[in-house]
Amino acid sequence: MATLIPSSDLPARGLRLHGVHKEFAGQTVVDNLNLEIEEGSFVALLGPSGCGKTTTLRMIAGFDTLSSGRISLGSTVLASDHQQLPPELRNMSMVFQSYALWPHMTVADNVGYPLKLKGYKGSDYQRRVREALATVQMEPYAQRRPQDLSGGQRQRVALARCLASEPRVVLLDEPLANLDRHLRASMEDSFRDFHRRTGATFIYVTHDQAEAMALADRIAVMHKGQLVQWDAPEALYQRPQNAWVAGFIGQGSVVRLPLSSSERLLSSAQVQQALAALQNKPSATEEVLIRPQHVELDPAGVPATVTHCVFKGERYQFVLQLQDGQSLQAYHWQGLPTGAQIAITVRQGWRLQEQPAGSTRPTLASVA
Amino acid sequence: MMTDRPSGALAAPATTGRGSGLLLGWCRRNPSATASQQVLLYALLLIILLLSVLPSLRLLWQALQGWQQGLDAPFIRMLRSAATWTALEHSLYTSLLGTALALLLGGLFALILTLTDVRGRSLWVFLFMLPMMIPPQVTALSWLQLSGPASPLLNTLGIAPPLGSPQPLYSAEGVALLLGIQHAPLVFLALRTHLLAIPRELIEAARLSGAHQRRVLWDILLPLCRGGLWTGAAIAFVSCLGNFGIPAMLGIPASYYVLPTLIYQKMASFGADMLSDVASLSVLIGVVALTGVALQNRIQRQQALPLLGMAGRALDFQLGRWRPWTELALALILLLILLLPLLALITSSLVPALGVPLNWHSLTFAAYQEMLSHQGATLRALGNSLLLSTVAALLLMLISLPLAYLLARRQSPLIHWLHAAIDVPYALPGVVLAIACILLFARPLPWLNISLYGSLGIILVAYLARFLAVSLKPVHSSMLQLDPALEEAAQLAGAGLLQRLFSIVLPLLAPSAFAGCLLVFLTAVNELTVSALLWSAGNETLGVLIFNLDESGDAVLASAVAVMIVALVAALMTVLNLLGRYLPQGVIPWQR
């Protein structure tokens, strides 16, 4: 366990994961995860399936135990390797992928159940249930059974139930996976709206990078049980840590270029110079991420050959071949025939950190 | 994907159909339903009509005979008889009391073994399921060996009540007690199936809402599996009602008659109107039983709650420091309802005569020697039972395979109705079926001029009718899981119906067909009710033998035979257990 800040030095609010480690049958699922989640933030755990994000969520909720490490909320330790606060005492709530509405209760009873357990009674109880249903526009359906509702309506009831009890932390486990595209957009708006209104901490698990970028203030990108990058969405897109993150978030190409300077953000001149130097078959090269929108057709630029051209609606997407055979993605408003010889200028590039030896590096193709 | 296309192209003409508005409706998937399928269909139809429908109709016909006599018609006379109503009342009393006990025991075991973190779960389940598989007359016999002044076990321990004190089990409550124990596994299975189907998210959502384990049980789990409890209760009630072995061994000595034993008694007293009388009584008990079944189906439909989400082990209730105590309680209950009676049974089989305590001097294997000696009726009964069970199991497997295929692949109201008809002889009490078979086969078969009555043949036909449902169920559920595309692919490759059946369908259904075969064998080898009325000299079965030996006072030999049967049952169950992992879920009743 590397450099851990003792918990007493941290602000006594927010959710903290300290060296959280989880093994199932000898296999490491979550590997020494450290996260500090500010109170009231909207955080996404993002990664491909099997990266350990759902296990992390379930450990926060208290459904899975930790092999080692510690999870604490404010000054309370929720879980460590030797003690475990049961889920019912954590003051959290969760939106499940399958909504998990109880089929033997009405919509109103579903929403009211956490309130009942908190001891609300009589008119106070009724008012809170009504309010919670009103915020998701489900008041007219209060006496229906969940099975009589559509998918989107169920999702809204689940959300109302989740928020009725005013939890400190709201956990969302791929809540949009079962909805169609149109509904997803409107549910995303509801999540954003709710987060703003309640001020609770939202932790959102997804494998969809667009969803994570659209919703979260901060994203924890996970891969093979490890935290790869923990950053704001813009930073993740503009300054990815390594080639794996670069490939996972957004479009782009990772090209090996000979670089003379040490900055990470490379100017157009620096990239052009490096591209031009490729024809000398340089020996020392480094990984550079080039986003397709930064590639422009320019007669004064370096030569390239069109190898693929796909119509994407608002523009064409190209795959170009550089002089030394490396490929580069680009956009253009006009289609070009395969094999066409063109010249390009790159407006900027981002130097990636080499991953430590031994760790596998997925190529762009393997991520897609 | 390319692979989607062929099946889509095939499905299209199937829905527009060939317009085969024949009696048996349209073919769901294979548009090229051919003459060979029709022949197969009509052959199976005939078998079902003969086995499942004809006996009930014959019985009804007999019961309604002489309706012109008005108040003196046999059916009305039976309804006016006080003995009928007493027996019905006894039947209802013992069955309801037995059902209540079964609910208590089965419910408790289902909740503990499905939900909590007790250790050795599969062993507990196996032990708890045993009473269901042990023949009722063996259960009765072993309990009789456990209690009363002559009990060898109590005598060995020196705690037997004084001679002359009554056997407490010869009473209505004794009958109800054993009925409850015998049928508790039915409630256990129904409730357990429901509990296992509850998605874990529903529990987790409640936990996060602030509900602790006990609240989750009361607020979420029990309401969600209410349907399972009612279903289990209804099945247990119908089974209690039809049980013959227990009230025969415990009730008749106390002159306490329930409907099945009343029918048995009337059968023994030959009289002019005997057949009409027993037919009328059979119709009466059949109506009560089928009402129970209908009630169960209705409850199942009404209480069915759609459960979305991943079904899995619902949750592990952490018992904490209560775990050892819970395990101890389970062990004590099993000791009481299973191990002690079996121990008493074994003890009884090892003493020279009842009332003698077991010790090194009195220990004798004489009963076993007699059982296995060649002159005895035991070996013959064993041979008869094994022969009947084997033949029934194999024949039913042969019928079930094509039947399951057609039931799954073709749909029409008639086929739906046939499927329901198959269940009737199994749902009806065994006595009813036995009487129906006697009525059907009392005279030699037309044209063939062979008389089944008084031969093993009549028992075999009754077994085929009764256990078709047992044999069909696993094969049918496997067949439903079989993707039609597998067959369509073979069809596109040029395989005809028979080729498809033999090269694709049969190999995939084989494990469940074998499981069905074993289940039939297991049930048939234990069978008493049907054979008690259909046996004749030289054609007795194991069940009949135990019953007769006990009736004639040879409880020691009866115990030895019973011990052998229990060993046989346990061995067969173990085989099925080992087979379990190759079968679809739910085929083996006590496994998941």
UniProtKB/TrEMBL annotation, chain A:
- Please indicate if the UniProt record lists Nucleotide-binding as a keyword: yes
Cited Gene3D superfamilies: 2.40.50.100, P-loop containing nucleotide triphosphate hydrolases
**SUPFAM superfamilies referenced in this protein's UniProt entry, alphabetically:** MOP-like, P-loop containing nucleoside triphosphate hydrolases
- Taxonomic superkingdom: Bacteria
Q: Which SMART domains match?
A: AAA
Molecular function terms from GO: ATP binding
Q: Does the keyword Transmembrane helix apply?
A: no
**Residue ranges constituting the ABC transporter domain according to the UniProt record:** 15-249
Keywords (alphabetical) are: ATP-binding, Nucleotide-binding, Transport
Q: Which InterPro entries does UniProt cross-reference here?
A: AAA+_ATPase (IPR003593), ABC_SmlMolc_Importer (IPR050093), ABC_transporter-like_ATP-bd (IPR003439), ABC_transporter-like_CS (IPR017871), Mo/tungstate-bd_C_term_dom (IPR008995), P-loop_NTPase (IPR027417), Transp-assoc_OB_typ2 (IPR013611)
Short name of any one Pfam family annotated for the protein:
TOBE_2
The record's annotation in PROSITE patterns points to: ABC_TRANSPORTER_1 (PS00211), ABC_TRANSPORTER_2 (PS50893)
Q: Write down what this protein is called.
A: ABC transporter ATP-binding protein
Organism source for this protein?
A: Pokkaliibacter plantistimulans
